Amino acid sequence: MADSLYERLGGHSTVFEAMHRLYEKMQNDPAISHYFDSMDIVSLTRKQVSFMTQVFGGQPPEETRSLNEIHENLNISNHEFNVLVGLLRETLTEIGVEVAIQHEVLAIIEDGRDDIVQIHNE
Fold it and tell me: Which of the two ends of the chain, N or C, has the fewest CB atoms closer than 10 A to its terminal CB?
């Protein structure tokens, strides 16, 4: 059986490093930083690592709400989602994730767009 995407990424340490760096970048990006002003980033990072672990083929997440429920009142636009995707791509490159694996990760993230984005006209 082929290794899961989670294993090919490098497991927990890589997913944690990617999410830690990504949240730092998102907190500093003028287009999306306002979403994180009053957030507990440590808790958010932990939940994101758990979720990503699951979607990449690792253990089930701690979070039981759907992506749509988590993001339903945030009014996230397509542009803001695209900023996130760009920051994630940049982060994966910085930590040395192979381009082919990056494409797999980004395809999974893209699959969640409709559950996260509420403003489609941007």
Answer: N
Tell me the residue range of the domain where 102 lies.
5-119
Give the whole-angstrom CA distance, residue 102 versus residue 83. Answer: 16
Structure confidence by residue, pLDDT tens digits, 78-113: 999 999 999 999 999 999 999 999 999 999 999 989
Q: Phi and psi (nearest 5°) for 117? A: -85, 130
Task: Report the predicted TM-score, pTM, of the whole model to 2 decimal places.
Answer: 0.87
For the record, the structure tokens of 119 come out as 């403003």
> Do 119 and 77 meet the contact criterion of CB atoms below 8 Å apart?
yes
Domain of 115: which CATH number? Answer: 1.10.490.10
What domain count does the chain have? 1
Q: Is 119 helix (H, G, I), strand (E, B) or coil?
A: strand
Distance between CA 93 and CA 46 in Å, rounded?
21
